[in-house]
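Appendix B. One record, verbatim.
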Amino acid sequence: MSRVPRAASICYVRGCTKRTTYRGRCPEHAPPAWETVSARNRLRGPEQRVWDRVVRPRALVRDGFACVLCGAREGLEVDHVVPVSRGGSWTLENAQTLCQACHTEKSARDRHSR
């Protein structure tokens, strides 16, 4: 049994008679491709490795393995004082130790103060 070739389809956009290449549209009318890297992960790179290996441990030692806001010693996270998405750096000066509760509150404040 031989297969019958599929008929060429034309672009869905009214008035366009070009052949489709992506989701029923021609290259001219195709939607833009999604970025494979999110904006947050685009900020990561060699700086992220330095943060994980150098800055984070030094911030914990500098802050005495305690939250700088409430003094808790469990569930610690190292946070950017100024978020990288707002121009903060990946340096020790922009790092602080926070417990999970304080980090959640600070992150919420950062999101709402845009």
